[in-house]
Amino acid sequence: LRDPRFVADVHLAKLARHLRMAGFDTLCEPAWDDDAIVAASLAGRRTILTRDKAMLRRGEVERGYFVRAVESERQLAEVLQALQLEGAVDPFTRCRECNTVLQDASAQEVAERVPPRIRMLYEEYKHCPGCARIYWPGSHYDRMRGILARAVTTRS
Fold first, then answer.
1. Does the pTM of the predicted model rise above 0.90?
2. What is the DSSP letter of 84?
3. DSSP class of residue 27?
4. Selection from 36, 74, 77 nearest residue 48 by Cα
């Protein structure tokens, strides 16, 4: 996949957030039914990620992958390995919630939107222009880096 883009069904919402954390353009809308997922796949040339074999059997589906793992971290490792994407990981470049590409933000730009204690501890921030979330390399950052590291090095 030269430009890996995905659309995940609602049952893979955690996987979608992990893929976004890894830098992959991944849509996942709770309200979408199978028809909407297939339409998004076709319109955006996206690979469908699902645990629903029936959806992948539909004649109009051009690209899809049946995720076998049940737990989200194992799903991430499976998808990266199966689609040979380990080298394409670009961590912390997309919003985990809305999929928008993150932008760097200075401490001054986010000063009014982060708690005072956070302002004292961190100088590097990312801002999501889509949903206005602010990200910083807090305690969760090391945990997320660990998830990505394990996913990239895991072999089935």
1. yes
2. T
3. E
4. 36
Q: How far is CA 125 from CA 64, 87, 97, 130, in A?
A: 35, 25, 16, 15
Q: Which of 31, 3, 14, 21 is nearest to 128 (CA)?
A: 21
How many Å is the Cα radius of gyration of the chain? 17
pLDDT mean over 10-17:
97
- Greatest C-alpha distance within the chain: 56
* Model pLDDT for residues 35-90, shown as the tens digit of each residue: 999 999 999 999 999 999 999 999 999 999 999 999 999 999 999 999 999 999 99
Amino acid found at 139: S
Structure tokens that stand for 82 in this block: 């199966």
